[in-house]
Amino acid sequence: MSDAAPASQSAPQPEPQYATVEQQAEAASFGMWVFLATEVLFFGGMLLAYTWLRANHPDGVAEAGRHTTVVIGSVNTLVLLTSSFTMAWAVHAAEHGRQKALTRLLSATALLGLLFLGLKGYEYHGEWTEHLVPGLNFHQDGPHARTIELFYFLYFLLTGLHGIHVTIGIVLIALLAVRARRGAFSARYYTPVEVTGLYWHFVDIVWIFLYPLIYLVGRSGP
């Protein structure tokens, strides 16, 4: 049996400020792209600070990088890449009006996001016990202690803000899953799913940049 929306479902109506549903979808998509552009600038500033630190203190950054838990970072990368696939598949299901598949794929994406946060929280706990949290619980000896502290300041700033973005994405996707279960979307109207998909892919792309910068630096050295 097909899981498509019933043919008798009334056609979606645009908000009063839009002439058509298509125009509303275009405006929503454009707005999300503008928002993501500002987010690129936001993360870009912090990544620039990291680049400066690495260029001027390469040995200290390499030593700091060896303190990171590469296994958890690698698993979390796989988790987010998988969630990006399920999100893309969800958008495809929405395009074809497959309500049951859409609900399941959105739920799977949200669960993968929760798994990511759980693993990250476990990693944060390990860094707390190793005294690697600047300003609260940092204690490292050696000539590169100051650089390691700066590295972990940027580490917690970047991964913490990324985690906030993941949390927001999980909430949005979970709400979409509830709406999809109630039949709120169809092949003619799935703009919220598409726009949220753009946001989630951005979150994944940010992590793809963070993973080698944080976890792989210093691993190839002696």
UniProtKB/TrEMBL annotation:
<dbReference type="InterPro" id="IPR024791">
    <property type="entry name" value="Cyt_c/ubiquinol_Oxase_su3"/>
</dbReference>
<feature type="transmembrane region" description="Helical">
    <location>
        <begin position="198"/>
        <end position="218"/>
    </location>
</feature>
<feature type="transmembrane region" description="Helical">
    <location>
        <begin position="70"/>
        <end position="89"/>
    </location>
</feature>
<comment type="similarity">
    <text>Belongs to the cytochrome c oxidase subunit 3 family.</text>
</comment>
<feature type="transmembrane region" description="Helical">
    <location>
        <begin position="101"/>
        <end position="119"/>
    </location>
</feature>
<protein>
    <submittedName>
        <fullName>Cytochrome c oxidase subunit 3 family protein</fullName>
    </submittedName>
</protein>
<keyword id="KW-0812">Transmembrane</keyword>
<keyword id="KW-1133">Transmembrane helix</keyword>
<feature type="transmembrane region" description="Helical">
    <location>
        <begin position="30"/>
        <end position="50"/>
    </location>
</feature>
<dbReference type="InterPro" id="IPR000298">
    <property type="entry name" value="Cyt_c_oxidase-like_su3"/>
</dbReference>
<keyword id="KW-0472">Membrane</keyword>
<dbReference type="InterPro" id="IPR035973">
    <property type="entry name" value="Cyt_c_oxidase_su3-like_sf"/>
</dbReference>
<dbReference type="Pfam" id="PF00510">
    <property type="entry name" value="COX3"/>
</dbReference>
<feature type="domain" description="Heme-copper oxidase subunit III family profile">
    <location>
        <begin position="30"/>
        <end position="219"/>
    </location>
</feature>
<dbReference type="InterPro" id="IPR013833">
    <property type="entry name" value="Cyt_c_oxidase_su3_a-hlx"/>
</dbReference>
<feature type="transmembrane region" description="Helical">
    <location>
        <begin position="152"/>
        <end position="178"/>
    </location>
</feature>
